Amino acid sequence: MQATRAKVAAMTGPQARFEKNTLATPEAISELTEEVMAFLHAQGVEVRATHHTALVLNEVLTNLGTHGGCADRPARIAVIVEPDRVTGEIVDNGPPFDPRHAPDPILDAAVDDRPVGGLGLYLVRKLSSSLEYARRNDENCLTFAISRGTPDQGA
Length: 155
Hints:
Blueprint: E1 7-10, E2 16-22, H1 26-42, H2 47-67, E3 75-81, E4 85-92, H3 119-127, E5 130-136, E6 139-147
Antiparallel strand pairs: 1-2, 2-3, 3-4, 4-6, 5-6
Helix pairs in contact: 1-2, 2-3
């Protein structure tokens, strides 16, 4: 099963929406993040918010494909541009997993003494101004928001 083409819809008011179904494979994730970054750039979203959105999508989908056993089943992705934030939605039918409750990595130990893993979801939680999870109809529904620019951040 291949990822479907992206759909970009103009919304009423100051919002625009990007939607795509994608597999959680490295190639599909790379393609998705490139498309999302191009969409956000076209919407005038600041570089920082664009990169943070791409990183969150990349980390969540990589975990889904690697640990969720869902690389062969598409996840539904939506990205909504609002005046003060970018909101992302990821819906998948993997096993229940709430990334808000993943343990924090051990950051005060030497790099060689730290266990492998955990930094990606930590970054997801730190970069997101809000992070919500629900399990509905046997699907994981994750919604995140990335705050948009401050005076010292350019477009």
